[in-house]
Specification:
By secondary structure, the protein is mainly alpha-helical. It folds into two domains: about 120 residues, no CATH class; about 30 residues. It is about 75% helix and about 0% strand. The protein contains eight helices and no strands. Helix 2 runs antiparallel to helix 3. It is elongated and about 95 Å long. The N and C termini lie far apart (about 90 Å). The relative contact order is 0.07.
């Protein structure tokens, strides 16, 4: 279905106001935002549908990059997606800040990407070193040698016992 026809149908469904129609309009707009992720006007329309549905977090999510946005909805979005990495992933923005059509959207994307980078750096600093020390490696090796020796001694003992039993 062409873009303009889909937008017109979604607008008609929202105007009807019943829940089933609004949900259909939401589904149409989600499909359009998926197909055209860099169009802020589609994101704004999807945010408006979520406002009708009373979902402030999703309205904030889809209006996050728009020129005009409700800060209460943005706060709800940030509460729902607590980390910058989660917010960046939820944005579903595919072309980076270079693809942002407005300076405001570009600035917000850059700020979100910087916050996500800071989060990753902080997580890497806190993360424990996965490489063990050489002492721990030596103890593991000694343990494996002991287990291997026990296995060999057990196997030799079993073979000797079976040999004596058959030999009489």
């Amino acid at each position: 279905m062409p873009l303009e026809l889909t937008l017109r149908k979604a607008a008609e469904e929202v105007e009807r106001g019943d829940l089933a129609s609004v949900l259909r309009a939401r589904q149409r707009l989600v499909g359009l935002v998926t197909s055209y992720p860099d169009r802020l006007d589609l994101r704004a329309r999807l945010a408006a549908v979520y406002r009708v549905l009373g979902d402030a977090a999703q309205a904030g999510r889809w209006s996050y990059l728009c020129e005009v946005r409700d800060e209460a909805e943005v706060a709800a979005f940030e509460r729902a997606y607590r980390t910058p990495l989660a917010r960046l992933a939820a944005m579903n923005w595919v072309s980076g800040e270079a693809g942002a059509p407005t300076e405001t959207a570009r600035q917000r994307l850059v700020a979100l990407q910087e916050a996500a980078s800071d989060q990753l750096r902080a997580e890497l600093l806190v993360a424990d070193d996965r490489d063990s020390s050489w002492r721990a490696n030596v103890f593991v090796l000694l343990g494996l040698v002991v287990v291997l020796l026990c296995f060999v001694v057990g196997a030799v003992t079993l073979v000797m016992w079976v040999y004596r039993w058959f030999a009489g």
